[in-house]
Specification:
This protein is of the alpha/beta class. The chain has two domains: 194 residues, NAD(P)-binding Rossmann-like Domain (Rossmann fold, 3-Layer(aba) Sandwich), CATH 3.40.50.720; 122 residues, N-(1-d-carboxylethyl)-l-norvaline Dehydrogenase, domain 2 (Orthogonal Bundle), CATH 1.10.1040. The protein contains 13 helices and ten strands. Strands 1, 2, 3, 4, 5, 6, 7, 8, 9 and 10 form a ten-stranded mixed beta sheet that branches. Helix 7 packs across helix 13 and helix 12 runs antiparallel to helix 13. The protein is globular. The chain starts with a strand and ends in a 6-residue tail after the last helix. The mean pLDDT is 96.
């Protein structure tokens, strides 16, 4: 089995190193800059449970150097998609499984709504470019419930969590997804096949869509956000609006915001991925985490004043910092 990881940040490096441990699996990387040199020099490297896991890797900044793969895992930050997705064609034939493993709503999520309206969602599929770049029939959805950090180019540290949820974009179960799920399980993940991956994506977003932007504009860790009663109530109001929107697209949330807050509190003083991006001076994933929900609410004509206010404030903050451009 030939696997290519596209985007070797924290999650891409985590999945890549785990898969590279399997017999009969070759895991390459499409990367850029210092990451290419680091991976070709040191291979895949992952720190977990007090040990360093290291496996060979061939990395390149050109998909043509890597050739057709059996599995392509896209673990990019969403602002990078427009530049990278059109360049992936040499990796993909009709049998290649393309697994999206990113934050927020992926570009394929609203295919049915886009086909009915003939209007792509500009926040995650600008001018339909992303759906044109990757054949829909090749796509598999993946939700990651794990935390890792990139300590330096090519070196990842696993922090917490080990759960992956994988599934067909159209729902239901399939043999091809089960094969991938079995491989991921063999690599050490707690991986399950979902018969409704869109709902799993939406549920994860339901929590991230508040913690990420609020942390970005305040600089606060999750525990501090939830300790403030006014901010906690504001987050709950946003989540209630998102739950109503989700119901309209068949993604029901069977939980109340307060219950989700209590689960988040158990994770302690963690920095969200968006706060880490702000601190590192890199573009934030605002459109796929929050902008797309605002865009959806406008299409469905559902009033969402709290979602609007958080999106507007975060967009203005990020724009003035040079971390967001539309």
């Amino acid at each position: 089995m030939k696997v290519c990881i596209v985007g070797v940040g924290a999650i891409g490096g985590f999945i890549g190193t785990r898969l590279a441990k399997l017999d009969g699996v070759t895991v390459n990387a499409l990367a850029r800059g210092e990451s290419v040199q680091a991976l070709n020099t040191h291979g895949w490297r992952l720190e977990e449970a007090g040990e360093l896991v290291q496996r060979p890797c061939f990395a390149s900044d050109s998909a043509a150097d890597l050739g057709v793969q059996d599995i392509v895992v896209i673990a990019l930050k969403t602002p990078a998609l427009t530049a990278v997705l059109p360049k992936l064609a040499p990796l993909i034939d009709k049998n290649t499984l393309v697994i999206s493993a990113m934050n927020g709503i992926p570009w394929w999520f609203f295919r049915e709504l886009e086909e009915k309206s003939h209007l792509p969602f500009e926040s995650v599929n600008p001018e339909g470019q992303h759906s044109n770049a990757i054949p829909y029939n090749n796509i598999i959805g993946l939700v990651v419930h794990a935390a890792a950090i990139r300590k330096e180019p090519g070196l990842i540290q696993h922090k917490a969590g080990n759960t992956l949820i994988i599934g067909e974009p159209e729902g239901g179960k399939s043999n091809r997804v089960q094969i991938v799920a079995d491989a991921l399980t063999g690599a050490g993940f707690d991986c399950t096949q979902s018969d409704n991956i869109r709902s799993d994506v939406w549920y994860k977003l339901w929590g991230n869509m508040t913690m990420n932007p609020v942390s970005a504009i305040t600089g606060a860790t999750a525990d501090k956000i939830l300790e403030d009663p006014l901010v906690r109530r504001y987050c709950s109001a946003i989540m209630n609006e998102a739950a109503l929107i989700g119901k309209e697209i068949g993604c029901h949330i069977g939980e109340d915001p307060e219950s989700r807050h209590k689960s988040t509190e158990k994770l302690g003083a963690f920095k969200t991925s968006m706060l880490q991006d702000v601190e590192n001076g890199t573009p934030i994933e605002l459109d796929s985490i929050l902008g797309v929900i605002y865009e959806l609410s406008q299409r469905l004509e559902i009033e969402s004043p709290n979602i609007e206010s958080l999106f507007g404030l975060t967009r203005l903050f990020a724009t003035t910092k040079g971390l967001y451009q539309k």
